[in-house]
Design goal:
Elements lengths: L1 E2 L4 H8 L5 E4 L3 H12 L7 H17 L9 H7 L3 E4 L5 H12 L5 E4 L13 E4 L3 E3 L4 E3 L2 H8 L12 E6 L26 H10 L2 H9 L2 H28 L12 H15 L1 H4 L4 H12 L8 H31 L3 H14 L3 E2 L2 E2 L1 H7 L5 H9 L2 H4 L2 H9 L19 H12 L14 H9 L3 H6 L5 H22 L3 H14 L2 H4 L4
Parallel strand pairs: 1-8, 2-4, 2-5, 3-4, 5-8
Antiparallel strand pairs: 6-7, 9-10
Helix pairs in contact: 7-15, 9-13, 10-12, 15-16, 18-20, 18-23, 22-23
Length: about 525
C-alpha cells in the first residue's frame, strides 16, 4: 500500500523488484500523464532490449506509415524506455504494438485503463491501482469486487512468479478503500435482456407463440430475479422461526409491572420525563404519576438477563427482516415483465406499419436485418432522406446513428444542414418511439463527410478533439451499419449500390486496417 500523495515514480521505486507491472488508472489522460512522469526518471531497457523494440516499431511503421502522429510521438520515446500506456483512445495499430511489446516482455511498466484486463491474457508480476474509485458515467464510486479482482487477477505469471503482488494507492480522503475486497463477495453477472424492435421482429418471424412465451418467461434475468426473491423469502422464514423460539423464552408476566425487563423500560421513560426540557410538556405530569404507580407493583424475582439477551436478539432479527422484506419489495416492483415489454414494442411496430399481426410488412422485413437503431435507420431509408442525399451527406448522417457524445467532445460542423434528420427524429419521438430507439447525434457528421471526401486521418484529428481510437470506432461502426443496410436492401439494387459505394470509400487506409 502506498500513500496517495506519493507519485508513481516513488511507487515503482518501491516495487521495482516485482516488475513488470500493470498500473491501472481510471482515465485515458491519467495513463498518459503517469507514463510521462515515470519516463522522466526511469529507463528500464538494456541495449539489446532497446534494439528489439526499435525493430518491432520499424516493422509496424513499415506496414502503417505515419503510425506515431504528433499526438503520439511521446509514446515512441516511452516504449524505447520500457514504458507504455494503453487505452481505448489509441488507434488499434498502436494498441496492437503496445500489446506485442508487452507480450515480448519489453515493457516493464504499462499504464492502462481497466479495459486492458478484459478479454485478454496479459499477466504481470504486479498490478498497481492508482485509485480504487472510478467514474461510472453517473458518479464516482468505489470499485466492485468483480472489477477489482478482474484487474488484480493479472498479477502472477505462471512459471515465473510464485505469488502475484497487488499494490493500491490509498487516498486518505476515502479510508473505506482500506476495507479491501473479498473474493467470496464477487457480484454475480446479471442478465440484461433488451426487448429491441429487432428482438420482436425476429421472434415473430422465427418463433411460434409457445416458443416466444418460453423465451420471455424463462430467460436468465427472470430466473435470477425469481431465484433471489426465493432465497430472501427463505431467509425471512428462517428468521421468523427463530423469533418464535426466542419468544418462547419469555414468561407469561412479560410486559406486566412485575416483569423486571418491563420495569427497566418504565424507569427509563420516567427518568426521561423528569428532565427539565420534558417535564412541562402537556401530559408529562400525568404520565409520570402513572409510571410511579406501575412501579409500585410487586417485582418478580428472576434472572431477567436471559430475557434481556433474547429481547436484544429479537430486535436484531426484526431489523434484518425489515431489510429483507424491503429488498423483496424492490425486486418485485423493479422486476421487468418481459412479456409486457414485448407486447408494447409489438404494438408500437404495428402502429408504425412494420407488422400486421404476426406478418412482417416491408418496413419490418427491412428492420429485421438491422441490429442497431432499427426504427431510426429504417425510417431514414423509407422516408427517402438517405437516397435523396449525396453520398457524402449520407455518410455524415449514418455516422451519428447510435452515437452518444461524451463530456466536452467537440467536432467542427459539416458544410451542409442535417435539420431534416433532426425533424425525422422529433417526429418519431412524437409518434411514441422511445428515445433509446432513436439515438442519433450530429457530432460525428463532419468527420465521416471529410473522410468520404478523402481527407487524411491527420486531417480528421485537426477537425475535432476526439482521440484516434474514438474516430476509428465511429468509422468502423458506420461501415458495419452500411453492411447491414446493404443486406437489408435485398433486391433493391439502387439502395444496395448506393450504400456499397459509400462503404468502400470509407473502408480505406488506416480505417481499413481494422478487420471486421
Amino acid at each position: 500500500m502506498a500513500e496517495y500523495n506519493s507519485n508513481c515514480v516513488e511507487v515503482i521505486e518501491t516495487i521495482q523488484d516485482h516488475l513488470p507491472a500493470l498500473y491501472f488508472a481510471f482515465g485515458r489522460g491519467r495513463t498518459e500523464m503517469l507514463a510521462e512522469e515515470l519516463g522522466r526518471t526511469f529507463d528500464f531497457l538494456t541495449g539489446r532490449e532497446r534494439q528489439a523494440v526499435r525493430k518491432i516499431i520499424k516493422e509496424t511503421e513499415d506496414a502503417c506509415p505515419g503510425l506515431f502522429t504528433l499526438r503520439r510521438r511521446n509514446l515512441r520515446r516511452l516504449l524505447l524506455q520500457g514504458i507504455g500506456y494503453h487505452h481505448a483512445g489509441l488507434p488499434p495499430v498502436l494498441k496492437d504494438l503496445v500489446e506485442r511489446l508487452y507480450e515480448e516482455r519489453l515493457i516493464y511498466v504499462l499504464f492502462c485503463t481497466e479495459t486492458f484486463a478484459l478479454g485478454v491474457n496479459f499477466p504481470a508480476a504486479s498490478t498497481v491501482f492508482d485509485s480504487c474509485r472510478k467514474w461510472d458515467g453517473r458518479e464516482f464510486r468505489g470499485l466492485l469486487n468483480r472489477e477489482f479482482f478482474q484487474m488484480a487477477g493479472r498479477a502472477g505469471r505462471r512459471g515465473y512468479d510464485q505469488v502475484g503482488h497487488v499494490y493500491i494507492r490509498i487516498d486518505e480522503k476515502y479510508p473505506e478503500q482500506t476495507g479491501f475486497y473479498n473474493e467470496l463477495d464477487v457480484e454475480p453477472v446479471r442478465g440484461r435482456l433488451m426487448i429491441a424492435p429487432n428482438t420482436v421482429l425476429s421472434l415473430l418471424y422465427w418463433k411460434n407463440d409457445e416458443e416466444i412465451k418460453r423465451f420471455l418467461e424463462q430467460n436468465l434475468a427472470v430466473y435470477q430475479n425469481n431465484k433471489e426473491i426465493w432465497q430472501l423469502r427463505r431467509e425471512v422464514k428462517t428468521l421468523t422461526e427463530k423469533e418464535k423460539r426466542l419468544a418462547a423464552r419469555f414468561c407469561p408476566e412479560k410486559e406486566s409491572p412485575s416483569c423486571q425487563l418491563y420495569r427497566l423500560a418504565l424507569r427509563r421513560e420516567l427518568n426521561h420525563l423528569k428532565r427539565r426540557k420534558h417535564r412541562h410538556r402537556p401530559g408529562a405530569r400525568e404520565r409520570r404519576e402513572e409510571l410511579r404507580k406501575l412501579l409500585q407493583a410487586q417485582r418478580k424475582e428472576c434472572d431477567f438477563k436471559v430475557c434481556a439477551e433474547a429481547e436484544k436478539k429479537l430486535q436484531s432479527i426484526a431489523e434484518r427482516k425489515n431489510q429483507l422484506l424491503a429488498r423483496i419489495d424492490r425486486l418485485q416492483k423493479n422486476s421487468r415483465d418481459f412479456v409486457e415489454e414485448f407486447q408494447n414494442v409489438w404494438r408500437l411496430l404495428e402502429e408504425l406499419g412494420y407488422v400486421q399481426g404476426r406478418e412482417l410488412l416491408p418496413r419490418g422485413k427491412f428492420a429485421l436485418e438491422l441490429h442497431v437503431q432499427e426504427i431510426l435507420v429504417t425510417e431514414l431509408v423509407f422516408s427517402g432522406i438517405l437516397l435523396e442525399a449525396t453520398p457524402e451527406e449520407a455518410a455524415a448522417i449514418l455516422a451519428g446513428v447510435d452515437y452518444q457524445p461524451g463530456r466536452d467532445e467537440w467536432v467542427e460542423r459539416p458544410p451542409f444542414s442535417l435539420e431534416h434528420v433532426v425533424h425525422l427524429r422529433k417526429f418519431l419521438l412524437r409518434s411514441g418511439v422511445p428515445e433509446h430507439f432513436c439515438v442519433w447525434s450530429h457530432l460525428p457528421a463532419a468527420l465521416a463527410a471529410a473522410w468520404y471526401r478523402g481527407v487524411s486521418f491527420e486531417g480528421l484529428m485537426q477537425r475535432c478533439n476526439l482521440e484516434e481510437g474514438d474516430i476509428f470506432s465511429i468509422l468502423r461502426r458506420e461501415i458495419d451499419l452500411l453492411r447491414q443496410i446493404e443486406r437489408a436492401a435485398g433486391n433493391d439494387a439502387v439502395l444496395a449500390g448506393f450504400v456499397r459505394e459509400i462503404r468502400k470509400t470509407l473502408d480505406r487506409e488506416e480505417v481499413a486496417m481494422v478487420g471486421v
